[in-house]
């Protein structure tokens, strides 16, 4: 059994398993003990989807109103003529054949890969490498797009990708613990609203079952699901 730190155990005692409004949940998370680093805040939603059904998968990306407090390392698979513009927009690497070759040899020091449709025929061979890492470009989350420059700008600024796991849960970063409470609340509400609008047509029954907020090294706090209505 994993041993919890004294700080975590102390914070856990403060958590009454009651369902809070989003505003109160944000206040509760921010009131937990501090750490030596600025913790990341996540919003986790447990959905009533069947993850095994392709028509009930939830996947995409969203730009939050207040960012997530972290610049992301973005690369762009594009025609060489667009490489300099992509780098100027925020990509740490850009291009086609040379970049594909670099990644195929094991270079993975980036968070997001953007690709132009014209080069996906070549970049597609990286699926076995990038797929397991969750970094393979896909039209579903906006990382395969003819507007490579705009996509680079958005993801470098912190555009949030999400995808349901095998348990029907969606995890989304909504900011840092140092954010002001109203900005965290605004980001979390934007994320929740976005997921709520993605209810699959094939789904029967309850869509949003549970919502919680959690920090990197702190207990989770339950949020009233009516915030998603």
Explain what this protein looks like in three dimensions.
This protein has 229 residues and is α/β, with parallel strands linked by helices. The protein has 2 domains: 14-67 and 160-228, Ribosomal protein L1/L10, rRNA-binding domain (Ribulose 1,5 Bisphosphate Carboxylase/Oxygenase), CATH 3.30.190; 74-156, Rossmann fold. The chain contains 8 helices and 9 strands. The chain has helices at 6-14, 22-30, 83-88, 97-104, 120-123, 127-130, 148-156, 181-196; strands spanning 40-47, 59-62, 74-77, 91-95, 112-115, 160-163, 169-176, 208-215, 221-223. The strands form 3 sheets. Strands 7-1-8-9 form a 4-stranded antiparallel sheet, covered by helices on one side. The chain has a 3-stranded parallel sheet with strand order 4-3-5, sandwiched between helices. A two-stranded antiparallel sheet has the order 2-6. The model has no long low-confidence stretch (mean pLDDT 91).
Short description:
By secondary structure, the chain is α/β, with parallel strands linked by helices.
Which structural traits does this protein have?
single chain, three-stranded parallel sheet, Ribulose 1,5 Bisphosphate Carboxylase/Oxygenase, 28% helix, 229 residues, Rossmann fold, alpha/beta
